[in-house]
From TrEMBL, chains A, B:
Signal peptide: none annotated. Keywords: Cytoplasm, Methyltransferase, rRNA processing, S-adenosyl-L-methionine, Transferase. One of its GO terms (molecular function) is rRNA (uridine-N3-)-methyltransferase activity. Specifically methylates the N3 position of the uracil ring of uridine 1498 (m3U1498) in 16S rRNA. Acts on the fully assembled 30S ribosomal subunit. This is Ribosomal RNA small subunit methyltransferase E.
Length: 248, 248
């Protein structure tokens, strides 16, 4: 069933004229007909089943049938921070991280980033938020993750999170393999966890130092070297496995 | 350090003239010089440090310095089976699965696959094995995963694995969240686990029936709907978290 985010409150029985972009997608791309069912998510992140009740040109009106008892959000709020990386990697990170339950994705320049965004950042972030919306619709999220740009690691360490981690290849090489599980399991429900991932070149020693001084803990993500776009997906999956699946 | 797979046994002190493709990459792409260090992996999956000792035209000879005590393979052998999917998804699956430690990737047509490979399969599989080799070099694996094509699910169920799983969206929707952890933890070291993933349309009921009749267990991978190329990466990460990281 199609799944759309509406920026309004919703209650059963409401007749809602869908926003133009959603209407267009339903009526023109999917050729919806009267009686077709969709899911709509309210601004309070509640999911409702609705039925197409009126089609006038490209304008689609739905009637809200019932609330669905659906919550697919991770029990802890996960933020990933990614050093600027090349090509379509930021898009891949945002798309896959959204499927894996991320709350927030932050991109920032790091010492060993070979690309700069500078003036391009507003345009890139706009596009990446569209990728997040589309992926959140596809994976039937209750929330659309936010994607943003920070100018520096200094701006990041001023932000507030309950659990703060940095994926550090040198820790993994040195055999560190306990901290990720320990830190995620120690994070209470509804609390936040942030994890920093370097660009292609990795995280520089002075960046590790700044992060450590501000309470970020080095974690290893297993023994293999992962690309810059794969490591955040490993982290988010680990959060899911440790908080959403049941142990034996 | 560059990491290359050689199809021969290696011992410390050996002088090895590298194969043409590796020589070319080192001498022309990376402009290697005498004394540069690389890693070479023997046909027995042992990793050695070697030093460039001779450069004649594009021919590179290395001297093997020492064996490195490196094993980055998953403790259990993981095979993923993927219903044929569109576009560059098979490449993405192979590349990321290799980074995440997969042993074997099998592609096969499934009922709801919208693409067919048929005559193209040999060419596709050749290309995908190149992707696996390149990703195995980048992620410093001890083994290059194999990529192959099977004609049908019937051919798959005739194969032998210790633990057999199928990722089934309907199980996840019904709240199944215990089997993945249980089955992976019950798989002994060096034993094999296989997991089947449907194409974009999912796994058809009659395919689930065939798999279940042949000992495949339905597992949920958390509450969110994942794309066909994301689910195998979730599975492999879960295997890593459950077998390579230490619990608190």
């Amino acid at each position: 069933m199609q799944h759309y985010f509406l920026s309004q409150t919703i209650k059963v029985g409401d007749q809602i004229q869908l926003p133009d972009d959603v209407s267009h997608h339903l009526s023109r791309v999917l050729r919806a007909e009267i009686g077709d069912q969709i899911e709509v998510v309210s601004s309070e992140q509640r999911v409702f089943q609705a039925e197409v009740s009126q089609l006038v040109g490209q304008k689609v009106t739905v009637t809200v049938i019932k609330q669905l008892p659906v919550n697919v959000e991770l029990p802890i709020k996960a933020t990933i921070v990614s050093g600027l990386s090349k090509g379509n990697k930021p898009e891949l990170i945002v798309q896959k991280a959204t499927e894996l339950g991320v709350s927030q994705v932050i991109f920032l320049p790091m010492k060993w980033s070979v690309v700069k965004w500078d003036q391009k950042s507003a345009k890139k972030i706009k596009r990446l938020n569209e990728v997040a919306l589309s992926a959140a619709e596809q994976s039937h999220r209750n929330v659309v993750p936010t994607v943003s740009y920070l100018k520096s690691l200094e701006a990041l360490v001023a932000m507030d999170f309950n659990t703060k981690l940095v994926a550090y290849e040198e820790s993994a090489k040195a055999g560190e393999k306990a901290e990720l599980v320990k830190q995620v399991e120690a994070t209470a429900a509804d609390h936040s966890v942030v994890a920093v991932f370097g660009p292609e070149g990795g995280v520089a020693p002075e960046e590790i130092q700044l992060l450590n001084q501000n309470g970020f803990i080095n974690v290893g993500l297993g023994p293999r070297i992962m690309r810059t776009e794969t490591a955040p997906l490993y982290f988010l999956t680990a959060v899911s496995v440790l908080t959403e699946l049941q142990g034996s």
